[in-house]
Amino acid sequence: MAVETVVPAANGNAAKVGPATLEKDYEKLRFIEEMTANADAVQEKVLAEILTRNAETEYLWRYGLGGATDRLTFKAKVPVVTYEDLQPEIQRIANGDRSAILSAHPISEFLTSSGTSAGERKLMPTIKEELDRRQLLYSLLMPVMNLYVPGLDKGKGLYFLFVKSETNTPGGLTARPVLTSYYKSEHFKSRPYDPYNVYTSPTAAILCADAFQSMYAQMLCGLLQRLDVLRVGAVFASGLLRAIRFLQLHWKELSQDIAAGTLTAKVTDPSIRSAVAELLKPDRELARLLAAECSEEEWAGIITRIWPNTKYLDVIVTGAMAQYIPTLEYYSGGLPMACTMYASSECYFGLNLNPMCEPSEVSYTIMPNMAYFEFLPHGGDGHHPGEGVDTAQLVDLADVEVGKEYELVITTYAGLNRYRVGDVLRVTGFHNAAPQFRFVRRKNVLLSIESDKTDEAELQKAVERASALLRPYNASVVEYTSHADTKAIPGHYVIYWELLAKDSSSSAAAAPALARDGVMERCCLAMEEALNSVYRQSRVADGSIGPLEIRVVRGGTFEELMDYAISRGASINQYKVPRCVNFPPILELLDSRVVSAHFSPALPKWIPYFPGRN
Ligand code: AMP
């Protein structure tokens, strides 16, 4: 039913998010208005709710909260913490301690974050009702999108969505990524029909843990319904590019299946087979079209060539994903890219109220009902493991200042108290009384291809491990730097090494022996083995990161790099070799000095791991 009105903002400032066309949307938009207009009051209420329900938890007792639920007492008594600080509690929960350690509500499962600690995924405890909160945030996305793109109920979304493997902790709790948990929940599986949220992918295909079968079926169903598709998406830009890569590799097989009306025997999952059978009929015309488009040398605009009614791409291209914008533009012929939400395993944070804006303009409005949010002014850090931050510096959601950068600190219903997420955000403005944030970056991330996050210390450790293999050859790594190469899909890590052979002071002398014994290739694999488990899982289980490459550069290259930096104004005393480079002239300089390139010859080892289990 059409509602011929604008959304009245709670502060009387009408139509901030535009006119709503459906009554259901109108309710959701009103909710956004109410929450954002009363951001501070909602935050106060959220904190009081969390502290009331968790008053008897061991954690809050330890800090002597004594049942207080007000902000002042909370801020005075409860420390700001990192994951490492909480590890003993998390370990106990993982080992089966069911007492109210962090949360009064039973921990229902662990969500495995793509952020790592000591090389392993962080385990985020969660409670059942968090699913409702996540679903509430999801339910706000289409009402906002409908304000900008009309007619999305007239077609479908081609979304490439995947579950990942899950395991149990020693104490018997399931541990899996937050989206796997969501897709496997009744909230998703038994969602009521909503014309604005019809997907081309059968749920059975989304829920299949076998990445090939899942992708094949989702692509096939997307092709079969190509004219219905109004939006194409994945969670992150890297996921959508993997789907395009999959099409490049498998279009022949897909078009044979479409022509014959039969599903390849490679897809064995019975529930996928029966879901696909409902759609798949022989369609020679479509098979011919697919083959004609895909056999073209040029894949520019392939998305709109195959799915001509696509209005926008629904993918996150902020943060580390910004590196994929040019490639997505190429494949989509410049379709708008909508970044709709900002979320994590710890908590879903907020949404973009202007989703059709340019990627560089994206700001997320944190929804004050999701958790209690505080902001640590960025740069005012001073936190070292074991020490506290100066908690007086933290400001509340409603008190952040436009133009300033902050690190996000959250207190969640599931029992994280004043927890540093590690994201740096810049305030760009306000929607009503709720601030809007640009995602600036995740702290300490040097290299990222998709959800992997490799920091400087991890890279350093990996280089050290690998360079030990050079010792028998009297060679060593004198300098190194790195780059996440995403020109081809999947992307891969490139590590530039300058070598020194001890006896001749030239790497050229060691080169024949290193080449003969395949040492450099072994170094690539040794580096991969030393990287964190998210990296290795992406390599092994998902195939979403390609083999690591070492490019050996000739002697003196890093000195040239320094000269270049100094010529551009760097101070000679303060110059440090950058451990990651993205600036094109520097990459060009490095690449022009490469004497040999080597790839990892095998997959690193990866097994799902849990603390306390060998
Ligand atoms: P995870 O812990 O694996 O769920 O990853 C959550 C992290 O992904 C966040 O803390 C951010 O660093 C990043 N992230 C999530 N949503 C966005 C977004 N819309 N833009 C940029 N980065 C994001």
Automatic annotation (TrEMBL):
<dbReference type="Pfam" id="PF03321">
    <property type="entry name" value="GH3"/>
</dbReference>
<dbReference type="GO" id="GO:0016881">
    <property type="term" value="F:acid-amino acid ligase activity"/>
</dbReference>
<dbReference type="InterPro" id="IPR055377">
    <property type="entry name" value="GH3_M"/>
</dbReference>
<dbReference type="Pfam" id="PF23572">
    <property type="entry name" value="GH3_C"/>
</dbReference>
<keyword id="KW-0436">Ligase</keyword>
<feature type="domain" description="GH3 middle">
    <location>
        <begin position="364"/>
        <end position="442"/>
    </location>
</feature>
<dbReference type="GO" id="GO:0005737">
    <property type="term" value="C:cytoplasm"/>
</dbReference>
<dbReference type="InterPro" id="IPR055378">
    <property type="entry name" value="GH3_C"/>
</dbReference>
<dbReference type="InterPro" id="IPR004993">
    <property type="entry name" value="GH3"/>
</dbReference>
<comment type="similarity">
    <text>Belongs to the IAA-amido conjugating enzyme family.</text>
</comment>
<feature type="domain" description="GH3 C-terminal">
    <location>
        <begin position="458"/>
        <end position="584"/>
    </location>
</feature>
<dbReference type="Pfam" id="PF23571">
    <property type="entry name" value="GH3_M"/>
</dbReference>
<protein>
    <recommendedName>
        <fullName>Indole-3-acetic acid-amido synthetase GH3.8</fullName>
    </recommendedName>
</protein>
